[in-house]
Amino acid sequence: MSGGQTISPELRAWMVAQLAAGHSVSALKQSMRDAGWHDDVADAALSELGPLAPGVTTAPAPPREMPGPDLSAAPLEIDADGRKVTVLQTMKNPRVVVFGNLLSDDECEGLIAAARERLARSLTVETRTGGEVLNIDRTSDGMFFERGENAIVARLESRIASLLKWPIEFGEGLQILRYSPGAQYRPHYDYFDPGEPGTPTILRRGGQRVATLVMYLQSPEQGGATTFPDVGLEVAPVRGTGVFFSYDRPDPATKSLHGGAPVLSGEKWVATKWLREREFT
Ligand SMILES: O=C(O)CCC(=O)C(=O)O
Ligand SMILES: [Fe+2]
């Protein structure tokens, strides 16, 4: 692209006015994205504004530290707190790593057994009170464990911290989801949408989510892959394995859009660990 010709005088005036009115660069970018601009074009337009908007830097933020396994020596196996976790597949953009031998069968069964009672209870409560709006985007049943709530959860959390080199305290409690036939989780981002009014409140508990580890506790018979529609990737939901993905900013450009494809037969159970920027309180 040739420099300096991206924006019309009208657009320039609008951008300057938005910034002068106190709107953030990211809000401006979101408006441009909503209007159909591609991120790289919006970035180029914003960088042209530089001299007109003193104090506003549009230079890319320095690379931040991110959770993730150390793959610098291309290991086939990683010792994670005493367990030999295998590296089955990796992708750079989006950042995706598929792990094998992440959990034992006993651990998978233990988590399911502990979650099952609570799922039953929470479903009863919901039906009785009519509370909790039915979410058509996610038709699985779910519950959360507290961090360190039982021995299996605690062991798994220290394994994850070692594997992904991220403090236990920066992780949310483990979420368990059960998908019956027909259930799915439509493609979504796990980070909190900066444009949503509730997001600043959510971010007070540990900042943004920066990575997700989905662990398969029970394979369905058919269906139920974890899909990454931007890159056409489908990860098979095989018990004991897991898929890790990270996103260094709350932006679709991370290509971290993902979902749980409909389960066609059998039941799929997953445990999800979300990692935050800071200590999650
Ligand atoms: O069930 C899956 O494969 C995906 C789960 C997921 O996206 C989530 O828990 O955020
Ligand atoms: Fe997700």
Structural class: alpha+beta
Mean pLDDT: 87
Return the string of H and E elements.
HHHEEEHEHEEHEEEEEEEE
**Which stretches are low in confidence, meaning pLDDT under 50 for 5 or more residues running?**
none
Count of helices? Answer: 6
Helix content: 25-40%
Total strand segments: 14
Distance between the termini: 45 Å
Task: Please report which band the strand proportion falls in: under 5%, 5-15%, 15-25%, 25-35%, 35-45% or over 45%.
Answer: 15-25%
Chemical compounds bound to the protein: 2-oxoglutaric acid, fe (ii) ion
> Spatial order of the strands in the main sheet?
1-2-3-11-7-14-5-4
Report the biggest beta sheet as strand number plus sense, adding barrel if it closes.
8 strands, antiparallel
- Indicate the overall shape: globular
How many whole angstroms does the radius of gyration measure? 21 Å
How would you characterize the overall build of this protein?
The protein is of the alpha+beta class and about 280 residues long. Helices cover about 25% and strands about 25% of the residues. It is built from 6 helices and 14 strands. The chain has helices at about 10-20, 25-35, 40-50, 105-130, 150-165, 200-205; strands at about 75-80, 85-90, 95-100, 140-145, 175-180, 185-190, 210-220, 220-225, 225-230, 235, 240-245, 260, 265, 270-275. Strand 9 and strand 10 (about 235) form a beta hairpin. Helix 2 packs across helix 3 (about 40-50). The longest helix has 25 residues, at about 105-130. It is globular and about 65 Å long. Fe (ii) ion binds near residues 188, 190 and 212. It comes from Variovorax humicola. Its cofactor is L-ascorbate. This is 2OG-Fe(II) oxygenase. Pfam families: 2OG-FeII_Oxy_3.
